[in-house]
Amino acid sequence: MRVSDSGSTDTVVDFDGVSKRFGQGAPALEDVSMRIGAGDFTVLLGLSGSGKSTLLRHVDGLHRPTSGSVAVLGTDLGQAHGNALRKLRRRVGFVFQQFHLVGALTVLENVCTGALGSLRGPRLGLALYSKRLRHDAMDQLERVGLADRALQRADTLSGGQQQRVAVARALLQRPEILLADEPVASLDPESSEQVMRLISEISRQDRLTVVCSLHQLELAMSWGERIVGLRAGRVVLDAPVEGLSRESAMAIYSGTDSDAKSVRSGYGELPMAG
Ligand SMILES: Nc1ncnc2c1ncn2[C@@H]1O[C@H](COP(=O)(O)OP(=O)(O)OP(=O)(O)O)[C@@H](O)[C@H]1O
C-alpha cells in the first residue's frame, strides 16, 4: 500500500468535512473527510445515487462543496478559478462510462484530443497535431495494446477497445490523478477485467493516483487497494482491500452499520451513516 499518513506531503486529494447539496434536496455528500496518497488506487462503491460521481466531480473542480474544503495536488479548490482551475484540470484525467470518443474520427485522432486542453485554437484533422504529439499518442496506444488500430474509425471498435482508447487519451495529458467514473459499466465481464487490469498496471507503473467508482464488488476487491463505501452521501466504509472480507464490504449496501464499523480502517476513524 502506498497510503500517505495524515499530514504527509504525499497526500494528493484532501477532503475535509465536505458536504454537497443540490438545491433543496437531500445532501449528495455529507461530511466526507478523506485523504488519498500519491499512487493509491481507491475504489468508490455504493448504491446508485450514493454520491460516487458527485465525489469524483469534486476532485477536478466540476463541483464545489456547499461546505467543507477540497484540496487537490496542493490546490484549494474553494479558491481556484479561471486559469488556476484549468491548470489543475490538466493534471487530472477523467474516464467515463460512455467513453466519449468521436466515432467518425480515427482512434489516433481521438487520443490526440487528450492534448486539447494544452493547445491553442481548434484542431480538426490529424495533420494539425504536431509530429511529436502524434508519436506520443501512438506510444499511449501501444501501452493500451491498440497501436494496430490507430487509423481505424473509433466507432468500429468494441466497447472494451473504445474504453482503452479513452484511457490512452487521458494518459496523453500526463495526468497525476486519473478519475474513472464507472469505466466498465457498459462492458462485458471479460472486457471489464481487461480495462481494470490496464488501469491497475498503469497506476503501479506510473505511480498514478486512481479514484475509480464501480458497481462490481468483485472488481473492486480484485483491482482496488482501498475501498471507500458511500451510503446516502456519507462514507460508511474506508478500508484497505487487503484483509477486508466480502461480507464486510457488502455492508456498504446492506445498511448494517455495525458490520462496516467492525472493519479496521487503515485510514483513521470511520464516520458512519446514522
Ligand atoms: N447536478 C445535479 N443536480 C441535482 N442533483 C444531483 C446532481 N448531481 C447529482 N445529484 C444528486 O446527488 C445524488 C448523488 O448522485 P451521484 O450521481 O453522485 O450518485 P452515484 O453514486 O454516482 O450514482 P450512480 O451509481 O447511479 O452513478 C443523487 O440523489 C443525485 O440525484
**Ligands:** adenosine-5'-triphosphate
Order of helices and strands: EEEHEEHEHHHEHEHEEHH
Structural class: alpha/beta
* Beta-strand percent range: 15-25%
Secondary structure: number of strands: 10
Order of strands in the sheet with most strands: 6-7-8-3-9-10
Unreliable segments of 5+ consecutive residues: 1-8, 256-266, 268-274
Mean pLDDT: 88
**Shape category:** globular
Sheet with most strands: 6 strands, mixed
- Count helical runs: 9
The helical percent reads: 25-40%
Q: Using only CA atoms, what is the Rg?
A: 19 Å
Measured between the Cα atoms of the first and last residue, the distance is 30 Å
From the structure above, extract its key features.
32% helix, alpha/beta, 10 strands, four-stranded antiparallel β-sheet, 274 residues
Topology, element by element:
Layout: E1 11-20, E2 29-37, E3 41-45, H1 52-59, E4 67-72, E5 75-76, H2 82-90, E6 92-96, H3 107-112, H4 131-143, H5 159-172, E7 177-181, H6 189-206, E8 209-213, H7 217-223, E9 226-231, E10 234-240, H8 246-254, H9 257-261
Parallel strand pairs: 3-8, 3-9, 6-7, 7-8
Antiparallel strand pairs: 1-2, 1-4, 4-5, 9-10
Helix pairs in contact: 4-5, 5-6
The structure holds adenosine-5'-triphosphate.
Adenosine-5'-triphosphate binds at residues 22, 28, 46, 48-54.
